[in-house]
Design goal:
3-stranded mixed sheet, single chain, alpha+beta
Amino acid sequence: MGGVNDGGNTMVRFILFFLMTAGIFLSLSHFSFSADKIPTKIIVRVVSKDAKVIGSGVGGALVRIRNLETGETLAQGKQGGGTGDTDRIMVRPRKRGETVYGTPDAALYQAEILLGKQTQIEIYTEAPLAYPHAIQKGSKTLTLIPGKDILGEGVLIELDGLIVNILDPTPNRDQKRGKEITVKAEVKML
């Protein structure tokens, strides 16, 4: 009868070992699969096509980041700062991977978003805010991974267009039909 009793003890030990192992695994996995949200930083830079960063001098740019699945706005604000290093952006040839726009005084928008899972987002921008008649809009979609920051150069969104201000003739000036006029305008990059 000693053999039967030893088999029962072995079975009890196995069940206890299994339950303890399962308990340890579940308690550890609670932390890795937790619903806690992880802060994730993202930098967005809105730039003018074949030109510089859209800076505070033209009113900056609106930046809105939203969750594509839920439509929830995750972050929104205004890009502000300088237009970047002219020599680096406009003159020097560029090497793959080289920092072009992410210089110390260049305009940017930075947000910290709390994420519980990888999230597909849309980044929407419009600029230049100081010139409503010249507003251009753009967007980009990407997937954010909790805790994987996007810093440095950041996410670049390029906008086409120019700012055109008619200086002469003024809108309230009477014009005679059929008469030649001279138009003066100020034209600058976004």
